[in-house]
Amino acid sequence: MTFMRPSTVKRAAAAFAVTALVAFAGTTPAQAADLGIEEFRIGLLGGENASDRLRSNECLRERTETLLGVPTKLFAPADYNGVIEGLLGGNLDMAWLGASGYAAVYLKDPEAVEPILVKINVDGSYGYHSIGFARTESGIKNLEDLKGKKFGFGDPNSTSGYLIPSIEIPAAGYTMNPGDHFGDVVFTGGHEQTIVAVYNGDIDAGVTWADGLGAWEEGFNSGALRKAVDAGLIDMTELTEIWRSKVIPEGPIVLRKSLPEKVKLMMTGLMASLESMDAECAYGVMAGEVKGLAPITHAEYEVIIEARKAKIGK
Q1: Cβ(169)–Cβ(246) below 8 Å
Q2: Beta pairing class for 248-249 and 239-244
Q3: Cβ(131)–Cβ(210) under 8 Å?
Q4: pLDDT per residue over 170-224, tens digit each?
Q5: Which residues of 183-201 are buried (b: 16+ CB within 10 A; e: fewer)?
Q6: Among 109, 133, 179, 209, which has the minimal tally of Cβ within 10 Å of its Cβ?
Q7: According to the 3-state scheme, what is the secondary structure of the chain?
Q8: Interval 4-45: pLDDT, tens
């Protein structure tokens, strides 16, 4: 995977934001009365409890409903597969997917969705990491220290919560087979569940996602750890980073490909302009501090698609 340099991403994001704002400024709710849709449905990927996901995205729902002039609904399934199947079945119109989640949709139906935008970090990059962590008091400092311990992963459809660790950790010499090095390897159900399970001592270590920027004590600038800190679930000084993946391409915001083109344009403009229009809303929707959103294409995820096909097969 070849990433654009931060300076290039910053210029591209800035140029796109200006274009999106101009296009968005010319779109009014009155013009949205005859869009060929009766409602708009937004899928919220798992990672934290449903009530928090709904609360963080309520501002987006309200703005979407005002813009499109049709009832807008949020859906927060219990797991990643709920959003994936919703998109495949045409029951959802938009979602922010992880790269592996997008790969899962594409491998089953290449015509189901199209990626439109990607989150840009505060340094201008659009990557993040899978972060392995443990309780500081456990004395665990690396993967070697996890011999005979219980290691937790989030969801089988998560990029950082399973796919990338399941490739990179064995490449580092530690198989994912329970009993080989790790005493047990378990799925917790999602990022928040993993974080809480480690923090409460239910498992010895786990993985989650973060941009890897900013202070550890704050849960980095964005990601599941930052959300957990903001929610008051954890004190980061009681946790220690024990492993970090290579950079992972940030997952795309996708739209149902069969949506009317005007709806796609309006929603792309809304999402691209969200940070400049309502920074507080963008903070909740994007799981922390961001620079904004920039265009992304399918080509950026071809490596992840091949990795998923090789590891999971679908």
Answers
A1: no
A2: unpaired
A3: yes
A4: 999 999 999 999 999 999 999 999 999 999 999 999 999 999 999 999 999 999 9
A5: eebbbbbbbbbbbbbbbee
A6: 179
A7: CCCCCHHHHHHHHHHHHHHHHHHHHCCCHHHHHHCCCCCEEEECCCCCCHHHHHHHHHHHHHHHHHHHCCCEEEECCCCHHHHHHHHHCCCCCEEECCHHHHHHHHHHCCCCEEEEEEEECCCCCCEEEEEEEEEHHHCCCCCHHHECCEEEECCCCCHHHHHHHHHHHHHCCCCCCCCCCECEEEECCCHHHHHHHHHCCCCCEEEEEECCCCCHHHCCCEEHHHHHHHCCCCCHHHEEEEEECCCEECCEEEEECCCCHHHHHHHHHHHHHHHHHCHHHHHHHCCECCCEEEECCHHHHHHHHHHHHHHCCC
A8: 443 444 444 444 444 444 444 445 554 545 789 999 999 998
Tokens of 123: 């340094």
Tokens at 54, concatenated: 């709904």
Tell me, what amino acid is at 268?
Answer: T
